[in-house]
Amino acid sequence: MTEKRSWMFPMSGRRPPLSLNDRGNHYARARLTRSVRDEASWRARSARIPRPLAKVRVEVIWVVGDHRRRDEDNPAPSAKAVYDGLVDAGIVPDDTPEFMEKPSVRIEYRQGVYEWFVKVTDLTPKEVA
Prior knowledge:
The longest helix is centred in the first third of the chain and has 21 residues. The protein is an alpha/beta fold and 129 residues long. The chain has one domain: CATH 3.30.1330. Strands 1, 2, 3, 4 and 5 form a five-stranded mixed sheet that branches. It contains two helices and five strands; from the N terminus they run E-H-E-H-E-E-E.
């Protein structure tokens, strides 16, 4: 079995900036969503992910440095902005299940480390020769 190609890139900040628990001004939230979307698009192009791919798996990974309880669903708005940014970059034509697998945000513990990043794996079927 052959290895699947994958690419990883970091996102700005110590945590995903958008949360389902956020309250506040709609316009400020829209600006933040646009910022995450644009950054994901830019970073995907910088990672030289080939375009277009037939299907990808996109994992959003949040690394935390303490053992406080966190809900994996809360960063969903940040993950959605990342998916849309990958579409904007031309990696896949749409973020529907036909083109993109989107497992829930994964939270990992590493002592004293706070970051979040994106892993894109090519799921394009290999053609039989």
